[in-house]
């Protein structure tokens, strides 16, 4: 009884009494902690499943959770208002995410150490800048060029373990896949900007289409398989905390924040926290070149964001 009263008191305080910005920080840090564990979760789960199998189960879990969230919000009936244009939009976005983005990213994790695959994927904000030139007709500034060069140097440091003279990559295919995943994610967000539907409805339909694409692919390329207990546990964790619940936490952080910049910049703590978790859970020795490269990538992103001329 006392425990129930205590939990209710905490919920009441968070929901009604706590200042809006403090709520935003709590939601933001909760999302960041969840996302920081995902590199380790990918690497550990891929020991028991191949990328396509992992993507199937994680996407189904994420779709289920998003459906439950829609029901709890009273928004499930909005699906009846979905037009043919909305369905076509979701079919394209579902192809990009979760299908192509995660399939490419998971294969990168299969070939590279978690510290490299996860860190290289953080280049997507600068890929977004490059794609905005031909797609949105935006002009690129001198600061943006400098930012891209800085981040590209960070990519080279991570990919070659700091040995720029020998130019030896752990896996050229793995690096290419990690960078390609950033391209798919950036393209997804450009299209996402044009979609004005409620975020949860949009994401739920994207995962429905993504799961359909995954089923079709597995039907033509895989034999029937029964996942192991460890593999299934990892897929459930990834579906919950990479694709499902964490998205809602982050959206709440942005909603409660007085200024979105106050929480959006906190996301750059995630890759550094992730490196610590990878070290202790996966057992990788974190290279100085990975940390230095990550600093350059994040510095490039921030340079591009705050210096526009």
Describe the model.
This protein is mainly alpha-helical and 309 residues long. It has one domain (23-306). Helices cover 77% and strands 0% of the residues. It has 15 helices and no strands. It has helices spanning 2-17, 20-36, 38-45, 51-73, 84-111, 114-121, 124-136, 142-159, 172-193, 199-221, 229-241, 245-256, 260-264, 270-281, 288-306. Helix 6 (114-121) runs antiparallel to helix 14 (270-281). It is globular.
Question: Tell me, what's the shape?
Answer: globular
* Number of DSSP E strands: 0
- How far the N terminus sits from the C terminus, by CA atoms, comes to 60 Å
* Proportion of residues in β-strands: under 5%
Largest sheet: none
Q: Briefly note the structural class of the backbone.
A: mainly alpha
The level of helicity is: over 70%
H-E string: HHHHHHHHHHHHHHH
Count of domains: 1
Mean pLDDT: 83
Q: Please tally the helical runs, counting DSSP H or I stretches of 4 or more residues.
A: 15
The Rg value, from CA coordinates, equals: 20 Å
* Low-pLDDT stretches: none
